[in-house]
Amino acid sequence: MTADLRDAQWRKSTFSGDTGNCVEVASNLPGIFAVRDSKNHAGLALVIEPGEWLAFVSAVKAGALGA
Predict the structure, then answer these.
(1) Predicted confidence (pLDDT) per residue in 11-34, tens digit
(2) So what's the pLDDT on residue 1?
(3) How many domains are there within the chain?
(4) Which of 18, 34, 36, 43 is in Cβ range 3.0-4.6 Å of 26 for a Cys bridge?
(5) Shortest CA distance to 10 belongs to which of 31, 29, 25?
(6) How far apart are CA 40 and CA 50, in angstroms?
């Protein structure tokens, strides 16, 4: 899926440290969520549909994604 991310408002978790090993999420775009590497703003972003994003967040909260 190709998406226009020019108006994306990127945010990083408050739990992220200063090491830069983080991702940023844009949740202000209609019908999609976008995820990118916080160290590479010019790089590619992963575009995710809302149902898939909610399933991912639910799995993280439930501890279903092991290391």
Answers:
(1) 988 777 777 678 899 999 999 999
(2) 65
(3) 1
(4) 34
(5) 25
(6) 24
Q: Which residues contact 2 (CB under 8 A, 6 or more apart)?
A: 47
- Name residue 24's beta-bridge partners: 12, 36
Round to whole Å and give the CA distance between 54 and 48.
10
DSSP the chain: -----TT--EEE-TT--TT---EEEE--STT-EEEEETT-TTS--EEE-HHHHHHHHHHHHHT-S--
Establish if 2 belongs to a structural domain: no
Give residue for tokens 């995820």.
Answer: 35
Average pLDDT taken over every residue of the chain? 88
Contact at 8 Å (CB) between 36 and 43? Answer: yes
pTM, full prediction: 0.81
DSSP bridge pairs for 11: 25
Residue 35, in any domain of the structure = yes
